[in-house]
């Protein structure tokens, strides 16, 4: 049995279930050599954690009385490598700038940074999904190295508290850490103990703050509308164009010709004439 076989890697560890020492196979409750190594034992080998079973080699005599073999050197814990940071930056509109976030993520030594200009109201954010996919791939390929998703602030990840808590739970389940570069929870987020409570409170507070801003914006737009100031793009058909269109239409000119002369679409002209009648 070479040292590269799964069985050899397993036998470098003492079994936490049957207490078989390093160098010996697992044993059953009746004192015989087990046909498979106990799950808790081969799970100690990172490369074998996903395996459903690791069989005992034939030369270990499965089913025969268990005997103590010469102990193999115990496996030493692998020294974790440096953390791998995946950065994510987001802003809601094209007019907003991303550079300050990108600079902060670069300063945090992110291996790769994903960014997009998209509202958190949009359920599918492609670059966030790409960042999460890469983090999971790195986590699987390098189980001994911490993988961290880094963002400048909490609101860059989600809009609602429920969505933020769900994403946090997903990251935790995938073994990916979350890092915030600013705010009350600056640093690596600890999902246990008081950290989870503070995280939930801040998530709800951020959601309430966003809703407050939204309500004030809508109130401002309504107040401006009452004064005759309507937001949005200026109308294509003003009063002068409408007067010209009506006059030419009264002379029997076609809608297509009038629309072309005024530089508007036929649909716009039809709508304006309909509203005026």
Automatic annotation (TrEMBL):
Domain of life the protein comes from: Bacteria
Coiled-coil regions, chain positions: none
Resolvase/invertase-type recombinase catalytic domain span: 84-228
Assigned keywords, A-Z: DNA recombination, DNA-binding
Segments crossing the lipid bilayer: none
Gene3D superfamilies, per database record: Homeodomain-like, Resolvase, N-terminal catalytic domain
UniProt record similarity statement: Belongs to the site-specific recombinase resolvase family.
Protein's UniProt name: Resolvase/invertase-type recombinase catalytic domain-containing protein
Organism per entry: Streptomyces blastmyceticus
Lineage per the UniProt record: Bacteria, Bacillati, Actinomycetota, Actinomycetes, Kitasatosporales
